[in-house]
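User: Predict the structure for this protein chain, please.
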Amino acid sequence: MKPNYLIIPLITILVSVTGSSFTSSGIGSGWYDSIAKPSWTPPGSVIGAVWTTIFILSTISAILVWNKAKRDTRFRWIIGIFLANAVLNVFWSFLFFGQGLLGLAVWEAALLDATVIALVILIWRTSRIASLLLVPYAAWVAFATYLTYTVWSMNS
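Assistant: Here is the predicted structure, written as structure tokens:
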């Protein structure tokens, strides 16, 4: 078995667990329940299901790219952006739920979405399937960015 079949899912689990811990702390403190949110805010169960699906699709995408791409400068950029995306994913949870910094979370979410879009574009030549697996992630983060902006606007 190739090491990437273990390492890539472990990175995904680390991102998921770390981000979830920040989310849980914000929800557990009562802060999240106390802020104004739009009526179209999805329930936590939907958000959890969507993120689980996104993490699975992203993991498969990363494995496909790792297995198929030439080890060149472009590959290093793709891996670097995947890693930056992982950090940004956790950092949004820290900013929004951990610190309640809604305005910064909006900008951070936009940057997170930019990394996903960059991956979709960069990966396309290597694996169209891997690229397409990230499209739901890009769409969800665009929605989440707008939701974050709306929450920030309602609470400013």
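The helical segments are 4-28, 31-34, 44-68, 73-98, 102-123, 128-133, 135-155.
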